[in-house]
Amino acid sequence: MDRPISRRQLLNAVGAAGGAAAVHAAATALGLLPAVARAGQLDLRPAGDRPRHVVVIGAGIAGLTAAYELRKAGHRCTLLEASHRPGGRSLTLRRGDVVDELGARQVCAFDDQPHLYFNAGPARIPGTHVNLLRYCRELDVPLEIFVNDNRNAWVHDDAAFGGRPIRSREYMADARGFLAELLAKSVDPRALDARLDADDHERLREFARAYGDLDETLAYRGSDRAGYASGGMTSPGVRKPVRDFPALLDANFWREYMHWGELADQAAPMLQPVGGMDRIVDGFMRRVGDAVELRAAVHEIRLEETGVEVACTGDRGEVRTVRADYCLNSMPAHLVVGLRHNLPARYVRALSAPGRGSLVKLAFQARRRFWEDEQIYGGISWTNQDITQIWYPPHGIHAGTGVILGAYAFDDGPGRRLTGLSPAQRIQAALAQGEKVHPGYRQLVEHGISVAWYRMNHVLGCSTRWTDETMRDHFATLQNPTGRHYMVGDQISYHPGWQEGAIESAYHALRDIERRERGAAAAG
Predict the structure, then answer these.
(1) What element of type H or E holds 292?
(2) Which of 78, 99, 445, 466 suits 319 as a labelling partner, its CA being 20 to 30 A distant?
(3) By the 8 A CB rule, do 321 and 327 touch?
(4) How far, CA to CA in Å, does 213 sit from each of 210, 262, 267, 506?
(5) Which of helix, strand or coil describes residue 436?
(6) Does the global pTM surpass 0.85?
(7) CA–CA distance from 23 to each of 6, 193, 306 (Å)?
(8) Can you tell me the distance from the alpha carbon of 201 to that of 192, in angstroms, rounded to the nearest whole number?
């Protein structure tokens, strides 16, 4: 006899299929867990007659956010930045800009034109990153659409289709078609829960037909979604041939990247600042730039009973000490460990716990916008080679030239391999691998430049790697202050690698400082 499924049974089934995150989401939807609200916009109370001095280490997005908000509330800030420029990993390269990689200094050789730039750090803004978007509005940073997912871009895998690239739309149409055909033909009312009636079964079949573009016999015989082999304007469109399902499975594209554009932080529409991601840094600097000291490398942090003392060295070797009521520190956690300090041992262990990402980005100036000849306007092509991605600029359309991202290795394997090469060797590797996606690639691009974040001075890593174990054992320690010292940055968020995570981490610290100040004022 059929019995209704219980919530416990449902959650067990969801957990078996989708893991702990899926169980949490399902339990929240069922009302078994409270939904977690977003932290929302920061609204600090005016300092009034109790202004505080805050020293901020690092003029990246977290540090600039903190200084901007503290200034608005009437507090005093000192920002100490070790690099020759503000922005941290928000790095946009144009002609003449320097890549400060240890032992491998590079200078960008792009032509001097406004549309020729390379976002070597963050390069896109999801529409859900509301705080970053609000700052773009407040700081007068104009935005434009960033094309992330383009079905006309290429999918390449050496193990599939004879090593030849195919259009993303072809792969996705065929994969969905075959999957939907299997689903539609396997729907047997006798094999499903009897509580579904005949109308439900019919709707399921119709769903599968619509999803996979099946014919009336529930067979997949190709789809207009893959594009036409010929015709379609003044003559009937001729569908492209259907690829064998085993061949589609040979390409690893289905494992993750086929669904990339459906991830929460990758879904359309996405945005980018007009002229480069560092326009956001420029906006902050217009408001708080007078508080930023560049080439000020911190070498010591001392916790005191009523404040924090920070010592730094200037580019001429001069040493100075800054005493402040609080310290917000966005220096990469693994670098803090190497300073002179009196931080508690448990805190130091937590600083040492997360791993360092080895992301590599590489870009070329194109002699002409050859991808537009291939009907590609923005978006990403995927390959199973170390370069992983090729990006096409969504701006400067039909401008003649453009900067194409020739590699974005964000997994540690490809990233480590490219990091281990010299800049010249990376260029040659990217040219050779790009040839498999775009024949003749080597003759189409020039002026290559790369950023291996694992070797970048003052950073030595990118997108902090938290494991479940290190997150459980150490994250809360770093998210909370030790004395009056706070760690901030995207590293101290559940969203490492994104500017929104950096902003929210600054908010978390600033709210705690305000709470402490209110408590002190109440105590008299």
Answers:
(1) strand 292-293
(2) 99
(3) no
(4) 5, 20, 23, 48
(5) coil
(6) yes
(7) 14, 22, 45
(8) 9
